[in-house]
Specification:
By secondary structure, the chain is an all-alpha fold. It has helices at residues 8-44, 50-82, 84-101, 108-136, 142-166, 175-180, 185-194, 199-207, 224-244, 248-256, 260-288, 290-310, 319-330, 332-344, 350-378, 383-390, 397-400. Helix 1 (8-44) packs antiparallel against helix 4 (108-136), helix 1 packs parallel to helix 5 (142-166) and helix 9 (224-244) packs parallel to helix 15. The longest helix has 37 residues, at 8-44. 58% of the residues are buried.
Length: 414
């Protein structure tokens, strides 16, 4: 049975809702890098030290990413079971409600648990949103809409950075940003009540009503090889982003001292580059082909991340331009992934497969961030050295991409 395409208005509604879901997803991802030290100063009081603050930043980040890894798999699988739209709406409600509860956290441990719960929703939005949009738009439009979707994630980080510049996040004033992060719950309700479902998913349900979608099927003989390569090529940029490049923000915060707006400006320059880069990643994959583009992104991400930590420093005039360039290049990966991952899997397991591949990287990233936090403590709070050592993960992409199927000329199939 061939699926009946959505009307142009319905397709635009799908794109807008998924874009906003990812934009607020980006707000959640960018929240603790810019607020973590202020939260720790407030909740730890006299016990706070810069090194301890860095260690808690690693814990908050790892907790969020662990939740996102689990949420991406479970809620991605839910999207194959009950529909992309409903699973995306549930995911948005998850990250909104638990983020809002962070405004009432009294201890670091409470905040740690809440960041894990926020992560469940953060992880669920990406596979369902990307899959929903990929299935509702024609193959000719997919590089553009995949780029728009990926840009939404980093546009959220950019939005948060600009709000933090207008209203600085400090140890005395940080709870407001968590209250604000609860607002997307309204979007989650609207998605559940009004957004149309993917015609391809509806058609696949009609053909396979008795077939259960199980995560373990992705590791069966038919899909094992593409699932494993999807996990590897997704893990490399994810670990690189969180275990390496994100250390620039607490580094900038520690160097700038009382200049509370500098960390927000640093995140803003990175997020501006990242918003452009995540949009262009899908276009680059379309122009140069999937393998060649991934190879080039891996090379230049390694070089620019090393440059950011070794050739400049916070408060130097060259710092923010290099931060911008690194944000642009390193996030080309995510626009690339938004186009590539749905092409790997058939419709019946597309959200599950994309979610498993993308979010398995977050398990590796959570471990990587914990190790980077331990390395930071061992090196006495040397942010540049930690960032430089961890940036080598990008170089693994130069080898990994040759084992990936080239889907440049393929189309999304049932």
């Amino acid at each position: 049975m061939n699926p009946t395409p959505l009307s142009p208005v319905a397709r635009m509604a799908v794109l807008a809702a998924a874009f906003l879901g990812l934009l607020f997803d980006g707000v959640e991802l960018g929240l603790m890098p810019v607020a973590s030290l202020s939260v720790s100063k407030s909740l730890l009081g006299a016990q706070f030290t810069p090194t301890l603050g860095g260690a808690w930043f690693a814990k908050f980040t790892a907790s969020l990413l662990l939740g996102a890894a689990i949420g991406g798999m479970l809620l991605g699988n839910l999207g194959d079971r009950i529909g992309r739209t409903r699973a995306m709406g549930i995911s948005i409600l998850f990250y909104s409600v638990f983020a809002g509860l962070g405004a009432w956290a009294k201890t670091q441990e409470q905040m740690l648990v809440l960041r894990f719960l926020v992560g469940l929703g953060v992880g669920g939005v990406w596979p369902n949103g990307i899959t929903l949009v990929s299935e509702c738009w024609s193959n000719a439009s997919r590089p553009v809409v995949s780029g728009v979707m990926s840009a939404g994630l980093n546009a959220g980080i950019l939005l948060l950075s600009q709000l933090a510049r207008l209203w600085p996040i400090t140890a005395d004033s940080w709870r407001w940003v968590f209250q604000m992060a609860a607002a997307p719950a309204l979007l989650g309700l609207a998605v559940l009540l009004f957004l149309p479902e993917s015609p391809q998913w509806l058609a696949s349900r009609g053909q396979e009503k008795k077939v259960k979608v199980r995560l373990r099927d992705l590791l069966g003989p038919e899909l094992r090889s593409i699932t494993l390569i999807g996990i590897v090529i997704s893990s490399i940029p994810m670990v690189g982003a969180w275990a390496a490049s994100k250390w620039m923000i607490p580094w900038a915060d520690s160097v700038a001292g009382s200049n509370a707006g500098y960390k927000a400006a640093t995140q803003g320059w990175w997020a501006l580059g990242a918003t452009l880069g995540s949009f262009m990643g899908a276009q680059l994959a379309g122009w140069l082909g999937r393998r060649r583009s991934y190879l080039l992104i891996s090379i230049f991400s390694t070089l620019l991340t090393v440059a950011m930590f070794q050739w400049t420093a916070p408060l130097q005039s060259s710092f923010h331009p290099i931060v911008f360039a690194q944000g642009f290049v390193a996030t080309l990966f995510f626009g690339w992934l938004a186009l590539y991952l749905p092409e790997l899997f058939p419709a019946r397991v597309r959200a599950s497969g994309s979610g498993l591949a993308f979010n398995s990287g977050r398990f590796a990233t959570a471990a990587g961030v914990f190790l980077a936090g331990s390395l930071l403590s061992a090196l006495g709070g040397d942010y540049p050295m930690v960032g430089t050592v961890c940036s080598m993960i990008y170089g693994l992409g130069i080898l990994a991409i040759w084992f990936a199927p080239d889907t440049t000329k393929s189309s999304l199939s049932q």
